[in-house]
Amino acid sequence: MPSSSAERVRAGAYLPVSVAAGLLAGSSTLFFAFTCPWLAEHVSLAFPPCVAVTFLFVMANFTMATFMDAGVLPRANEDEDKDDDFRAPLYKNVEVRGIQVRMKWCASCHFYRPPRCSHCSVCDHCVEDFDHHCPWVNNCIGRRNYRFFFLFLLTLTVHMVAVFSGGLLYVLEHLEDLWALRAAVTLAVMSVTGLFFIPVVGLACFHLVLVARGRTTNEQVTGKFQGGVNPFTRGCCSNVEFVLCSPITPRYTGKPGKRPPVRVQPPFQKPESLKRSPGKVGDNGIQNKSPPSKQQSPRVLSVPEFKRPSTPPPLPPKPDPVLLKSHLAALEESLLHSQSVGPPGQNLSKMGQILESPSRVHYQVPREQMRKRENIHFPMTCRFQDQSSESSLDQIDKQTPISVHSLLQSSTLPLNSLTLNSRSLSLKHAHRRGDRAHVLGQRPEPLASRPSQSILSGRSGSLSYDSLLSPAELAQRGAYPLSYRAPFLPMDMGGRGPVDPQRPAPRTCSPVFMAASRRSPQHREASPVHYDNLPKGLMGSIQELEEREKQQQQHQQLLLQPQLRPQMPTQDPLGVYDTPGRRSLPHESSSRGPTPPAYGSREFLMSSAAYGYSSRTQPACSSTSSLSRAPRTSTSPLGSNVALQGRSLSPSIYRSLERQAQRSPSTLPGPLPTSSYTTHKALAFSTTSEQQDSDPKYPVNES
Amino acid sequence: RRPHSASLANKVFIQRDYSEGTVCKFQTKFPSELDSRIEKTLFEDTVKTLNNYYAEAEKIGGHSYLEGCLACITAYLIFLCMETRYEKVLKKISRYIQEQNEKIYAPRGLLITDPIERGMRVIEISIYEDRGSSGSSSGSSTTSSSGR
User: Fold this and answer.
1) In this predicted complex, what is the ipTM?
2) Which of A28, A584, A666, B20 gives the lowest tally of CB atoms within 10 Å of its CB?
3) Beta-strand pair A139-141/A125-127
4) Residue A541 · residue A375 · CB < 8 Å
5) What pTM value is reported for the model?
6) Among this protein's residues, is A134 annotated catalytic?
7) B37 interaction partners in chain A (CB closer than 8 Å)
8) Does Plastid appear among the keywords (chain A) (predicted)?
9) Residue of A36, A106, A120, A134 marked catalytic
10) Are A364 and A407 in contact (CB under 8 A)?
11) CA A366 – CA A605 distance, rounded (Å)
């Protein structure tokens, strides 16, 4: 029966701690009772009290290590993570003291584990600064109670030495009658002490080294910093000081809020900046901002529209999730309407497809593929919230591209809020993409989309957006505020300075994709844009166009090549989270151009799995030492110095990879060709419906 | 009876800044959702003050040494009687957040949640919208349960 087996398991968890406590208390009590009187008499009167004090410390530290909360992180509320878990990218990179550290998504607790945090599967919670789960105290050892565990080991070592030596003195004096009660008891105590002496001393030394090096057991055993630098170390003395003397952090769980609630009552104040420019803000802000000229055209993204230069409309300051949805809906609707028009419409319908995939994906498209300013205007909207584009698309009404830009403008949401949303493409939209795949099939032109540029920008170094706009289009789009570009184009924009809308070589992270098919190829710049969330067909068509352009253009992208390299820490000052969501791995073969290996989530994971499982044993589930490593409490065996690009896969994919790797690590391929990386980015579309797309549907149109 | 009520529209999460390690520090980057709700300087002041509080709480110095020694000497029985320095600072933080909410954020339709309730991982800022409805009791304003 499951209940009885569960109960047995739970009861079994108490066995080691009971044994430990029993042996400790029992042996010491016997020692004090039978050996100490003689020792007090014949060795020193102070000896038993000292041993008693030591024993007291041992018990105090043992009790604290057993009962103190290790630093359990409470599970995240639902509203903190609106996305479904399986859409979340598995990893996010964070820079700690200049070193990239990977934060893993905890599927149980629904947040990205802070650095050094790990999930204990025995206790089923995440623990801050997780060291290990110790069965001898039946508790996790983490940030709050590590010092007690460490001191327990040290004092226990001292205590065992004292007991053993006291017993030895007694026995040596009573060799002639070892069968006497006292001598026998002393011998028994000595043997128990001697038996556990080596493991305890070994463990104490091990933790001494860990403390000196500023590592946790988890990090040491998983080899996180092997060959790399530990960003958490402060130097030997400071590490010891931190362990022993740092303030004890509070409990995170079970803290009731006792403060009186604060009432929030409208009307609400507005910031001064908004008061000064009322035109910018409205209740439905984005719509108000569109210039009237733009609103005339029902087709937001038709190419002719963009040929009309006009004053750029002011961009809305605030992304309203509802508005975004409505904009998406309007855009899609306009795209659908324009389908009958011909190729432009088809382009637009493709865009609609793109639109549906909420740009929570921050994928990196191989530059080769993104170089061209493709033929299509795409209003790319970054979804900041978990929005259903289906409903929103139905509501939207005639939004101009500018308004879409405004949406994209709002894509400058800080990464802290975007990270949650930008994790992956929504499953909800996957089926829609599949629906539209056939529609787009007739489209001859490749598409380029930069759906989640803002999110992509978080991945420093890997994202660079080339404007796909022609000069005319740029002019009409007006100046995109650089303020929001800056965080997203750390490397790309570095040398460019302020965006000049009239510049023919745009590098704006404009999410709108111009229908570049009407343009001559020279308008297409080497595009460092990377996209991951296009459907396979689109990406195939883009790739074809890409290949053709390669022959025509200079290798501007070589200039941009450095930007695709593994993220520079300097590009990510705020710990922007990278890694586009990867739901599933599209199984299209690597028909893409070469991409930097760092971005291949699948390759990375495959290679990392190969590393992890072929070169390193999995964390042992049990060992003779007191370390009990719960399976999968540690993240990938690869250290943070590896795969800074940690592109994420959906947890399910990652687990399947892990399992596959476990079964046959030798069969794991080496790092897959980087060209297949881009296929992963179509993960947004990688549902089965999307896989109906096929490349032949998108022959490249060279018009 | 109030003419308007507010309902929760959105939540912004200010993430931790791990650039200096595992010390508790929050990003001061201004989220764009708040762009139309509060001045950037006010927000940054709040976050910076919170960061200073946390830095003070986690500071390793004379106070923490004393606390550690006392705890050790008393076999940690001192924890039963006294609250730790960190807990004291947390209370200060809680009061500060309360005051900020009352004075600055609530008038702008925002509410800050104490990070301790989220395991110190995020600062949660709830954004409220003015629904403009009169006398509606559902979806009305926030934590207060006073009658309308």
Assistant:
1) 0.87
2) A666
3) unpaired
4) no
5) 0.55
6) yes
7) 268, 270-271, 318
8) no
9) A134
10) no
11) 18
